Amino acid sequence: MKKLSFIDATLRDGSHAIKHQLTVSNIENYCIEMDSVGMDTIVVGHGNGLGASSLQVGLSLLSDYEMIHTARKYLERTKLGVYMIPGFGTIHDDLEPAINAGIDVVKIGCHCTEADTTRQHIEFARNANKEVYGVLMMYHMASINKLLEEVQKMESYGAKGVILMDSAGASTMEMVKKTVATLSENVNIEIGFHPHNNLGLAVANAYTAIQEGATIIDGTVKGFGAGAGNCQLEALIAVLEKNGYATNVDLYKLLDVNDNIMPQISNCIGGLDSLSIVSGMSGVFSAFKIPVLKAAKQFDVDPRDIFNELGRRKAVGGQEDMIIEIAEQLSNPLGSNEDDLTYQIGSLL
Amino acid sequence: MKKLSFIDATLRDGSHAIKHQLTVSNIENYCIEMDSVGMDTIVVGHGNGLGASSLQVGLSLLSDYEMIHTARKYLERTKLGVYMIPGFGTIHDDLEPAINAGIDVVKIGCHCTEADTTRQHIEFARNANKEVYGVLMMYHMASINKLLEEVQKMESYGAKGVILMDSAGASTMEMVKKTVATLSENVNIEIGFHPHNNLGLAVANAYTAIQEGATIIDGTVKGFGAGAGNCQLEALIAVLEKNGYATNVDLYKLLDVNDNIMPQISNCIGGLDSLSIVSGMSGVFSAFKIPVLKAAKQFDVDPRDIFNELGRRKAVGGQEDMIIEIAEQLSNPLGSNEDDLTYQIGSLL
């Protein structure tokens, strides 16, 4: 039984839940308590990774540098990591400074069919002797064979492992089982899983992934995260221990962080609302929730219909502009059921 | 593929979450919206069932009669049900009046090894031509063979089905699989499952139960319920539909209840805190949370240690008095690790 690694994304993916407004104090208190819990790595940064702070996806309170610098002071037993999506961040402006600031782990992410875009970044981090993982986002949108090709590319670039990100929380347990089993059997590097809880299955999916050979799980404390939230680490550790797995995690200390630290960050964490569930069903990136609600209000349409259309169009992360377009079309009775040309002709009549 | 029935416990089990303070208005608005969603039955009442309102387990705002009477006015397409634990309620004072008030469904519950205590009540309700289900609470505490005996007893009394209640949210998916498969294969009546979300597995456990032959699931909207909460109906319906099951539930209407009605009842629903998880790990009835926290505060001890001791003693629902005793012993350094006699001698020194 290979050693399990838990990567704590609370201060990165969790950041979405509070619109990236984590403070220095939040990060300090969190890292001080969390360092001795037994996580492999704690990741910090904007919800969309290094370099992502912007008007389009949300400005963060602190710069990437401030977050890394703060966390670096308090993490001794746990590695410090960052996440970056090429396009949102660049090697020169974001990755290199982060490495210089003393991070240990780099996770480079891309849409599940675009591993090519991560080559330079993975190689750069490997050459800097950092531990590097590739992340395939919205993994449910590619066939298992295609995923295998993408994993093998990342392996060739020097990634230590590849993490499948269930960005939309759209996975059923069967989907996780088949995908992780196939990938684990066919590559030598580690396979990881990053659940989201849109269908209430985050813990179950993480557990299923581990049963099928995954050795890395991304989760957060209290499931803190965008929309439906992430895999709740405390619940997963409890399930694993109940099933006889050795986690090397101090569960009581982890629960203390839940009790004592998380209320400083947010006073109502957890609970699936209807948009979370609809995004899970439609397979749409859960972080779209805030722009979807905004556009729905602006155009007076049902936000769930926007999600369904985004799912139909197989929208991926980074395509927030499409939301306004869809909402506008839905609000226009002529345009909503016609193709673009008819819509344009109609608007001229 | 047998028809699936969903029993909505939001206005009964969910009541624990707000200390049984549901109002007439809450019940009215809820039933008006929920009646056309497609639930088989909506259950109303005190969290611990008919007759349970008391200082010990919590006084409810409304009497059982008021709750039944209010719901009865607005449920036409969905059956109205009640839950009763013999001991908390009696035939004469509670069950018979409820039947006279026009309920359709009766659920009679007991500890998982005590089906004998339900015989008179199940027979009474059957003789009144009501649809009757037995409920085996804390089912994880009995062997599968013992559970089978108890289910067969309830079957002989006239129960249409037996629902396994995972009162402590202690079930792993493997446990659910083995138990439900064995029972389904060996009895003719319906088998149901009532998850709790202490280990983040409520939806997964409900799904697993259905895969193994369960045809009844108890859940709540938004997972609203005591402690860790119940199986979130919206998430379960979404998972089932994604897996090709016919649920006959209007998911959008169900999601509307989540969005529009639940905020009237409680403004922060969901999220597993540390006590929820510890109670799931120790296998202790989750509704102990409030008295455990109170006793922990009173005696200045760690509430998780109280839970672990309750689990060690295999405490069951109704034994809230034991909590004070344990907390007292934990707070007394002499008494906490000794047996009762030594404790008594020690306190005389």
UniProtKB/TrEMBL annotation, chains A, B:
GO terms for molecular function: 2-isopropylmalate synthase activity; 4-hydroxy-2-oxovalerate aldolase activity; manganese ion binding. The record marks 12 as: Transition state stabilizer. Residues 4-255 form the Pyruvate carboxyltransferase domain. Its EC number is 4.1.3.39. Keywords: Aromatic hydrocarbons catabolism, Lyase, Manganese, Metal-binding. The active site is at 16 (proton acceptor). It catalyses: (S)-4-hydroxy-2-oxopentanoate = acetaldehyde + pyruvate; (S)-4-hydroxy-2-oxohexanoate = propanal + pyruvate. Pfam families: DmpG_comm, HMGL-like. SUPFAM superfamilies: Aldolase, post-HMGL domain-like. One of its GO terms (biological process) is L-leucine biosynthetic process. PROSITE patterns: PYR_CT. Mn(2+) binds at residues 13, 194, 196. Substrate binds at residues 12-13, 167, 194. NCBIfam families: 4OH_2_O_val_ald, PRK08195.1. PANTHER family: 2-ISOPROPYLMALATE SYNTHASE 1, CHLOROPLASTIC-RELATED (PTHR10277:SF9), HOMOCITRATE SYNTHASE-RELATED (PTHR10277). Belongs to the 4-hydroxy-2-oxovalerate aldolase family. This is 4-hydroxy-2-oxovalerate aldolase. It comes from Lachnotalea glycerini.
